[in-house]
Amino acid sequence: MQEAIMNRPNGAACQPYDPRVSNFPRQLWWVAAHSAQITADSLVSRKLLGVDVLLSRRADGTVWAIEDRCVHRGLPLSMGWKQGDEVVCRYHGFRYDTEGKVTCIPTQNACPKTARVDSFPVVENPPFVWIWMGDPAAADPAQAPDFAWLRDPGWVWASRHMNVRSNYMLLKENVLDLTHFPFAHKSTFGALDDYESAAEFSYEDGVVTFVKRFMDQPLSPIYDRDLNLGGRHVDRIDMGKSISPAEHFFTATIRDPMREEPYLFRFQHLTTPQTNSSHHYWWVISRNYGLDPHPGEWFEQIASTAFREDKEILEAIQLRLNESPDPTRMPEVSAIADRGGLLARRQLRHFLEREQASAT
Ligand code: FES
Ligand SMILES: [Fe+2]
């Protein structure tokens, strides 16, 4: 995506997300699945960055990923079955290993060298499986994000996967501007109506950050539930970070004068493009307090409902973009609170340009 399509010749800003043009970097670790979704028996098909990918596990428990397309006549391999660690195509029985190579054509002794599909590096850092769909030689497993606190018994968390029919950047912008809470989430996070003015934004080393401070005041109900501070004044500092086009991380740090350690409440928004106008969305909500009862109740429920509210809004916007003969001519007027979203566009350009530079 070039600067030229961001602006009209007269300088007015325009929609940058053209459904006819892909806007996702490939040289990046993206979430492919929740760990629990991939088993040794299952053949999971996912469209990721425009490619149909088949995910499964070896008998030793490691995850593998290859293109979900039989090289013979194109049937999705996910419609076949496992034979040991290999997958058998349901149509004429071509068999594939975990690297995407055809190891058996039932009607002949030898397999041509060209009989293979792409395989993709994967890293499992529970509860997520990450995939690299760029140059495999550039994949560094150590760079795959790891949310280690989700494996710490001192935290409770809930996470869900959603399919959203919008460009993934619409969601990135959504979670960088929380002034939509009192409107889009009137019945859910609307209870947390303290985003009446814009946060402070910054951009450094390719990371977009926002900070908002709520000092010496009672906690919003959503944070106070299961803490029950009874209206006692505390300091709360919200910090959101768009770490990459794939990952957004938010922490509310609550400092209670009666306690040494802060209470932490986190949201993560993990987006992986399916196509130019659809994406996978994994959200995670976690906290280091209120460990009992398990958050599977109100905590998970309110987040599920709220993120469905966002989905409905983003899909309606995307529909308009899809219907426009030229979405890059659709004017946009931004508010002060959009600074984070605009910085996310800059961050995306940074990732795309870096990738382009490394390819030349
Ligand atoms: S289409 Fe897969 S073996 Fe023929
Ligand atoms: Fe929202």
From TrEMBL:
GO terms for molecular function: 2 iron, 2 sulfur cluster binding; dioxygenase activity; iron ion binding. The keyword Hydrolase does not apply. SUPFAM superfamilies: Bet v1-like, ISP domain. Residues 30-131 form the Rieske domain. PROSITE patterns: RIESKE (PS51296), RING_HYDROXYL_ALPHA (PS00570). It holds the Pfam family VanA_C. Coiled coil: none annotated. Keywords: 2Fe-2S, Dioxygenase, Iron, Iron-sulfur, Metal-binding, Oxidoreductase. PANTHER family: 3-KETOSTEROID-9-ALPHA-MONOOXYGENASE, OXYGENASE COMPONENT, IRON-SULFUR DOMAIN CONTAINING PROTEIN. This is Aromatic ring-hydroxylating dioxygenase subunit alpha. It comes from Verticiella sediminum.
